[in-house]
Each structure stands twice: as structure tokens, then as C-alpha cells.
Amino acid sequence: MLETITGFLQSYGYVVIFVSIFLESTGLPFPGESILIAAGIMAGHGELNVWGVVGASFVGGTMGDNLGYYLGHRFGRRFADRYGPKFGLTPEKLDYVEQRFRKVGPPIVLVARFILVLRQVCGFAAGTLRFPWWEFLLFNALGAALWSAAYGFGSYILGDQIDRYLHGSPWAYAAIAAVFLTLTATTLLGFRNRLRRQRETAAKNASAALEEGREG
């Protein structure tokens, strides 16, 4: 896999970085992160310019997420209204999630790019939930800049060590995937539990208010 990615980068350079991260950011299962790391390593060996690597990653990520946002804003709500109830996502629950996302959305959008799966669906979800576009643009661009710099410059500086580690251990990719999957699962479960607790608290408050109204 590493040899294939390297071959594409040697042939097409920054275009591969931009296209792969653009497609991944729209929600497609594309190895954008792996390509960014490989490009950073190659930049460390003088085969690419590290600023070009980071710049192509930033532009591709920002544009891809905004396309995902547009698709979610244009089609996501219609899709959720039609198929959501089959999976327990009723219009009432969707409205509740939308209200909560308006409050907790900025930090989620900011860190989403660092979390597997969430990175792919964040733009579409934000558009579906009608998160304000200008806020999404701001925090998404900031997250894309931080992620591109962290992985691009990180692999550029530590390129030899990363390259040696990935070639020296057949379990390297499995270990990296396990870490990212664990972080993703923890984040999603935490968010789900938080929403459940908030719903329970809202229900208790509504019940208490109803009782007070009856007593009054």
C-alpha cells in the first residue's frame, strides 16, 4: 500500500494530495490521511516541498468539507426525514440534535478532522443539521489548517523514523488503525451518552414544570 501511494505521489505530486483529501472530506472512503503522511515523508527526503504538501492538504480538506456541507444542506434533511424513522431517528429527535449541535458544533467541527470517520461525515452532518455556514467555514478551515500542519510537518520532521517503523513492523498499520478506531468510538459514544443525559434532564424539567403548573 505504501509503495502504491508513493508511486502516485511521485507521478502526480500535489494533485494527488489535493484530490485524495478533497474526496475523503466529502465523505468518500479515500486514504487521504495516509497520502498526507506519505507526502510528508517524501518532503523530508527532498522529493516534494513541505509547504506545497501542507497547502494542498489544507485547500483539499476545506473545499471537500464545504462540498459535503452543501450536499448535507441540500439533500441531507430530506434523506433523514424519509429514512431516519426506520432507524429510530424521528423528526423530534432530529430537531433536538439540531438544537444541540448549534451549541456544541464549533468544537466538534474543529476537532473532527483528527478523528477517523467523523472527519468524513462532519461536513454532511453539519449541513444536514443546518449548522450556520459561516461558523462551519471558520472552524472547519481552522481544523483543516491544524490537521494539515500536524500531519504534514510532523511526518516531514519525523519522516525517517516513521518510514522505518512502517516498513519494520507488519502490525504498524493495524496498530494505528486500532488507535484511531478507539478514539472515534470513544468520541461518538461520549457524544451519544451526553445527548441521552440531556434529553433525560429536559424530560425531568418538563415533567416538574407540568406538576408545578397543575399545583398552581
TrEMBL record:
- Which domain of life does the protein's organism represent? Bacteria
GO CC annotations, alphabetized? plasma membrane
InterPro entries attached here?
Answer: DedA_domain, VTT_dom
Q: Where is the VTT domain?
A: 30-153
Q: Where in the cell is it found?
A: Cell membrane
Q: Kindly indicate whether the keyword Transmembrane belongs to this entry.
A: yes
Keyword Ion transport in record: no
This protein's membrane topology, according to the annotation, is: Multi-pass membrane protein
Which ranges does the record mark as transmembrane?
12-30, 50-72, 137-159, 171-191
For this UniProt record, give its keywords in alphabetical order, as a comma-separated list. Cell membrane, Membrane, Transmembrane, Transmembrane helix
Which Pfam families would you find in this protein's record? VTT_dom (PF09335)
Q: What is this protein called?
A: Membrane protein DedA with SNARE-associated domain
Which organism is this entry from? Answer: Aureimonas pseudogalii
